[in-house]
Amino acid sequence: MAEFNLHARLDRTEETDATAIYEEYTESSDTVTMAETEATDPDDDPDVLTPTEYLEIDGIETFAEIYTDLVDHPAVVGLSLRGPTADRYPLPVQHHALQQIGDPTLYEFHALDGQVTLVIAESELELNELHQEIPDPALG
Prior knowledge:
Elements: E1 4-11, H1 18-28, E2 32-36, E3 48-49, E4 53-57, H2 60-71, E5 76-80, E6 89-94, E7 108-111, E8 116-121, H3 124-133
Antiparallel strand pairs: 1-3, 1-4, 1-5, 2-4, 6-8, 7-8
């Protein structure tokens, strides 16, 4: 089990091998490993690749750093922050929407920048409740 999972969907015209992107992080940190799953849902867009590889990450600082890098990566079209081995579940939320969280004591908060904060749930149930409280346009 890992504290966090991060799974990138890739633009086939930019990159077809997630390993090439992930190795930068696995080689530079002993708290990041690459894992594989067969339980992936292919994207409807034929130009989007959902690789079987994903990252297992321990530590919120490391996770936030990698998330921030990959969210702006030209080959990445989307990031899934859930995974088969995750113990914790982050959700990027715009700062103005944080006040909509009914019980903030249930979550840990980690600011990424002046606009987005990772709200970290300890279970998928808490994450689902958080999704109900935060409207989709307010997600980071």
